[in-house]
Fold this protein.
Amino acid sequence: MQGVGTESMVAPMTPMAADGAFPSADLEMRLAYGDLPGIVQMSATERPRVLQSYATVHLQEEIRREALVRDWGAFVNFLRLAARESGGILNYAALSREVGLSIPTVKSHYQLLEDMFVGFHVPAFSRSPRKNLLSTPRFYLFDLGVRHAASEARPGADVVLADPGRFLEHWVVCELWRRIQYRGEGSLHYFRTKDGAEIDAIVELGGEVIPVEVKWTARPGKRDATALEHFLGETRGARRGFVVCRCPRPAKLTSSVTAIPWHSL
């Protein structure tokens, strides 16, 4: 992690464009169509069609070719539901009932997606003094455009408008996960208690624990730092936190919590 300002929380691995934004795509487009380079360069009319083709033909065929899946129809149904639930806390039992597969098979399918770099697990943070922590991991598909298409939603602004905060959180978590993989060090977690206290993402890097909240707001205030302040006050190794949102520039919310724009992540 770097100092607060226009520097990123996890140093970017790609050079910035001349105008300071990389790549040149606004937030709504990223949330609607994802960040695959080929998709970003296409016209708005081409993007949904190509993403749907990727999810239904290329992605499924790649998995079918590389993996031994006994019931292909059930797996396709699983993939649709896994995409729909992407970013949520895994409920193996509920998904097992809905797709008609055993819980061990559902777990193996999730592992298959991770092994083929289609998605990744985010484990729960366990080093908290609180006793009522959730321990089930979350699972994220690697790209929002692919997530939309695989869930059989047509990628576009309408999907994002239905729940923009959820998809901004999904995008931020994917970005943090990628930056950690690029660095080759650090780990990513989330935090939630059984009574509903939650931190969207927790980065552990260089002995420091850094909590991150994601808010759709463009005008963050001190209230948006409440959960982070509680976490910082009770967690060893946690000294600063961040709110990632749509604010135009970094802003101190409290002495230890800073709001940063999504494009400065």
Remarks:
- The beta strands are 119-122, 138-141, 187-192, 198-205, 208-214, 241-245, 251-252, 257-261.
- Residues 27-264 form one domain.
- The first strand starts at residue 119 and ends at 122.
